[in-house]
Amino acid sequence: MYLQIVEQIRQRVAAGDWPAGQELPSIRALAADLRVSVITVKRAYQDLESEGVIVTRHGKGSFIADAQDAAQAVHRAELDAHLAAAGRIARTLGIAEPELVERLRNALNDKEAAE
């Protein structure tokens, strides 16, 4: 459920549905609406804040971060997820780190050549 909360907020920010400065539901209110633990929502908000997607102002609530910062944070999180998946696949295939790095370098060079 925690991951679903994080992904839903990321998607809404990336799609532009939630503009910078929009207030998010309080942790307690969202937990009650979703019928999950307050700890689950708090963890999701903390991760989103550490990614730069939201900002929390003590006593005021949580808000969508500056549009450019939030969008960049969403894209960085997406990149991190893809890289983690690539790492898992490489381990499954027995590909060592130097080969994985070389494959990434080749992929970057192929992309630049195509542009």
UniProtKB/TrEMBL annotation:
Coiled coil: none annotated. It comes from the Bacteria. InterPro entries: Tscrpt_reg_HTH_GntR, WH-like_DNA-bd_sf, WH_DNA-bd_sf. The keyword DNA-binding applies. It holds the Pfam family GntR. Keywords: DNA-binding, Transcription, Transcription regulation. Residues 1-67 form the HTH gntR-type domain. This is GntR family transcriptional regulator. It comes from Pelomonas lactea.
